[in-house]
Amino acid sequence: MILSDKTTRRWNATPFVVRVSTDLLRPEPLRTSEALLVRSECRAYPPGFRAYFGTATASSELPHTVDTPVIPLPESLFYLGDGDIVVVRPTTGDLRVLYRRTARHNSFLLTQACNSFCLMCAQPPTKHAADDCADLVGEAIPLMDINTPEVTFTGGEPTLLGRKLVELIRRMKNFLPHTSLHILSNGRLIKFLTFAQDIAEICHPDLVLGIPLYSDVSHEHDFIVQANGAFDEAVKGILNLARCGLRVEIRLVITRLNYKSLQRFARFVARNLPFSCNVVFMGLEPVGFAKSNLATLWIDPADYGEYLAAAVWILESHRIPVSIYNHQLCTIRPELWRFARQSISDWKNIFIGACEGCAARHQCCGFFASSVDTHSRAIKSVAQPCS
Fold this sequence. Notes:
By secondary structure, the protein is of the alpha/beta class. It has ten helices and 16 strands. The longest helix has 14 residues, at 230-243.
């Protein structure tokens, strides 16, 4: 599924956010923040909408203006429906689907800046790109369906936003009080206790901060994230979050650089971070920096099965919740299947030919679309699902 494309229309205006509607009789007070989606010929659009999306060439009595733009949708975005949210950048014609009302996963990129340079980063930092992402997300939050189950804030590094991140968390609580909020951060700036206190004071009812530790040894972690002192800062950030009563999830991407130390890492977490609400062992997504460093990072899951299993059993014996992300079920031991999650976002989730007829496909996470050429030799169709 394509989340961004370009329209043929260009005009001079600032970027804006709109919620999609197909209702010609939409109440007028709601129209000012919405774009009417017209799928067939229309001689005249009902007035008052912020913008108009057309999936066909329509003869309209309403001319295109800066205040009421008529925007031809590229075919790749014809799937848009009621409640979806789109960012429009008029000067470049860029359209990006920020939120899909029916999606299981909605992740918001808050910034493209980062204070680490991880070897396997799937979203490499960009110095010169427009960084108005957080402001646009702030505009989108009130437009989201109040029944949205979960939202993820990611980056770059969200904590670089400082107070702006705190206000976005507050905005989520105010507009979407029943929506779980997951923030992915390297935790380094949360070494300042006041940052953790500011987040805790919001009292968000369902907030988890996911922070990566790639080793229990500082120099190993620092090498992977390419930042001296990052391990000490991240651990201090984790402890500050726990001190303030916030839930912390520990994340580790398994690579050739750290797979042999998984058991040792599990013991470190069990002894030093036993309050963790979840520990996630993640498979490598071969995009961004990971693709460039694939020879250094890639290790077949079939080759680290015993290490992963040992780490999981240590954490479970200490009653620390464990999850396995981005691993096809046939690549891990059947006794670990209960820890595996369907973790890959649906818009970049695929299955390959070897998965045809697999009895476990309905509970498997499948593949990243980017990993078609990089996958385990253990991939096979399973005859019987694991009980």
